[in-house]
Amino acid sequence: MKSKLFIATAASLAIAFGAFAKSTSSTNTVAIKQLKAEFKDAANVTWTSTASNLTEASFEWNGQKLHAFYNANGEQIAVSREVSDDKLPLKALQTIKSKYAGYKTTEAIEYNSTEEGLCYYVSLENNNKKIILQVSTEGSVAVYK
Predict the structure, then answer these.
(1) Using CA atoms, how far apart are residues 11 and 92, in angstroms rounded to an integer?
(2) Mean pLDDT of residues grouped by 10 in the chain (145 residues)?
(3) DSSP string spanning 36-85?
């Protein structure tokens, strides 16, 4: 699955370090150090700057595709990963099945931010209609987009 939820917020700017990609002067070096410290075995790291002035690292770690987001000071503010929809809270799955019958799940993202904590974003499609839902850990479901 592609991370469509993050494409809207990210503008491409490839960079890196050592096992990561090549570094440029616009790379947040503190963020690079943070990533290397927290995810030592990260592979295929690419760096982008988002429209909201964040630095995003997209990488593979422990067999998973992850995204880490850093502020201008290089502090990590969020980490996300792709998950299967069966990893969503049971209450949310029940709500989605009843309220969005006929929709197909195209992507599910686990998003853990320092500001809002853990939540999920789920992309649904039905013919030409696309919806993104925000799901809490308790299973409440709200339309995000």
Answers:
(1) 31
(2) 37 28 57 93 93 91 94 94 93 94 94 94 94 94 91
(3) HHH-TT-EEEEEEEETTS-EEEEEEETTEEEEEEE-TTS-EEEEEEE--G
What does each C-alpha distance from 60 to 69, 81, 139 come to in angstroms? 14, 10, 28
**71 and 126 co-located in one domain:** no
Output the six-digit token pair for 63. Answer: 């067999």
At 92, list the tokens: 């949310």
Note whether 48 and 73 are same-domain residues. yes
Q: What is the CA radius of gyration of the chain?
A: 16
Domain match, 10 and 72 both: yes
pTM across the whole model? 0.75
Question: What's the domain range around 111?
Answer: 85-143
Residues in the chain: 145
Q: Which of 134, 133, 126 is nearest to 104 (CA)?
A: 126
